[in-house]
Amino acid sequence: MSASTIIFYIISAFILIAGAVAVTARKIFRAAIGLLFSLVGIAGLYFWMEVNFIAAVQIIVYVGGIVVLIIFSIFLTQKSGEEMPKPIKSRKIFSILAVVLGFAFTCSLISLQTFKVNTNAFNVEVAEIGNQMLSTTEHGFVLPFEAVSILLLAAMIGCIVIAIKSKPETK
Amino acid sequence: MNEVPVTHILFVSTALFFTGMYGLFTRRNMITMLMAVELILNSVNINFVAFNKYLYPDKLDGVFFTIFIITIAAAEAAVAIAIIINLYRSHHSIDVEDAGELKF
Fold first, then answer.
1. Which terminus in chain A has less CB density within 10 A, N or C?
2. What CATH number does the domain located at A3-124 have?
3. CATH 1.20.120.1200 domain locations along chain A
4. Is A150 on the interface with B (CB under 8 A)?
């Protein structure tokens, strides 16, 4: 058992514990901090897999953008010190049952499957990602790139339109 | 480097997916449900990167799917939070049980 193996299991345990805090904490602010640590742990997992660019994007977009947005909206809409009401007992029992069954089913499917691991070296260079993202040849991703840019523009305009405060009519 | 089998990475992402699923089932607060959805999307991203790295290291498709999923998750979170803030202004609550006008 080498150091990298041990690091993988430590990172995974960290991700799962922080994720469990994020979905079970009664105080909403604590749940948001759990989500923050879970996302940082996932970025660590990307670093462990040596996909540095994705790890950097994960930290910038999720930790720097989405979690900050969520914390802002918690402060705008909630009294963050208060505890949330407990989930109804029957709902809790049935969701635990469904989740455990689904987890066991998926894990058994995965362990039945044999994966042919390709041992070639995998190094992602940012220049390569950029070239393939904007290339118009067979393996280029320029069409999804354009579609996503339009989607982002539409989402931005939509957010402004939805969240804008309509002025009271003054005469 | 390759002492951890691919299946263990897949187990971790499965566990994360079902953690998010549990949150989505039990939570009734819209912001916490949004956080559960973020966990689910992230578990899918781990799968894409792991498959790309271990099974098809000559290609980059998994990395591109991950980038696009992250982008779409960011757009989705922004729209969802705009909707939540608008709902809070009109209902003074962000509990899904209180927003039942469109239910029937």
1. C
2. 1.20.120.1200
3. 3-124
4. no
